[in-house]
Amino acid sequence: MEIATVVVGGAWEVAATTVTSTGNLFAEHKLVLLWLIAGALIWTITEPLRKIGTRATLEGSHFVLKWGLLARLCLHRYCKYVRGPAVRGQPFRARMWKIYEAILATPMVVLEVKKMNGEGLGRLIYKWLDALHEYWCVFLPESWRFAWLTWKKYCRGSRMEAKRAAARALLCGRAGWTVISLGIYFAFYGILFSYECLEWACRGFQGVFVLVVTASYALASKQGETLNDIVRTNYLLLLVDGSILVVGVVSRLWRWYEATVGERSPVSMAKEGYAAWCSALEEQEQADRLREAFWRMDGGGDAPRTPVRTRSGLEAERRALRAKREVARTVGSRRGRRRLVGEDVPSRDGGQRLGSGAVCRDPRVDDVRSPGEVLDEETDGEDWWLK
């Protein structure tokens, strides 16, 4: 009984000491304990908010890590393509163009391979890169190329048009010279014809001489004391007499020339001039037709232009070829109508027996494949552009 009393007393003393010590500890560090209690309460209350923040941090980290790895993959594929034989083995200009074009095309290819170009940020980046690629790699180069070709074309056309203008001026000069020469020849032959009529009426050159002398003697003026005065007074008469003499000499010489070389009448000259003018006019019309053909070719007028092969067009072509291959496999896997060829052995159409090792191709499947289809079969949907 005494032992139990001692044990109970010791336990009570220990409990009292513990409570006293705890109270003294709380009294001494009550501010710290209050802060700890408040922190525990706040931690418990803000647990839903902490979960949202943790989830947002994890999602942000996952987003940054995902697109960081994607950017690293793009850089790796770009360096692999640039250092590959498809670029290193090209001439300098082609190599620079491939390096430049791959800057925008590589992320597009990576997004397609990773199936990230269909929705969300990947679709936005893909469309943005596609628009930049179309603008910087298709539209601007083609525009500059067509502008340069147009500039060269117009320079050549300006030179051609200058030559055509000179040809037209020469043609007009030829026509004017023909008219002037015909006028001169008509005047010349008219004077010769008048003189020959006069000579024929006077029965020869002697008759003309007698007529001129007689007329001059009858019409000459006797005024004047010196010879100079007489010549000055009869200047017009002397001029007419001299002209008739010169025309007579020229007529004799022209007859001798025609008898030696051949007759060249104004009619023959007019025919020759008209023929030359018609030939020059036909050449001018031919040059005009060639000029119109020159301006129509290489994109002028309604001439068809070669369409630019864009990346979206290539992807559409690949999808069409892939669908065609699937149809070909489906058709090739079916058995056609079989018939008996002897000994009840079934055979395919065309007489090829089963098990003979011969390949039976369906005639509906096109046997002619384009290079794009061959490339698609070799790559089998892989990233062929960066290989």
UniProtKB/TrEMBL annotation:
Keywords: Membrane, Transmembrane, Transmembrane helix. The keyword Electron transport does not apply. The chain crosses the membrane at residues 32-49, 169-192, 204-221, 233-254. Residues 338-387 are annotated as: Disordered. It comes from the Eukaryota. Coiled coil: none annotated. Residues 374-387 have a biased composition (Acidic residues). Residues 340-351, 361-370 have a biased composition (Basic and acidic residues). This is Unnamed protein product. It comes from Phytophthora fragariaefolia.
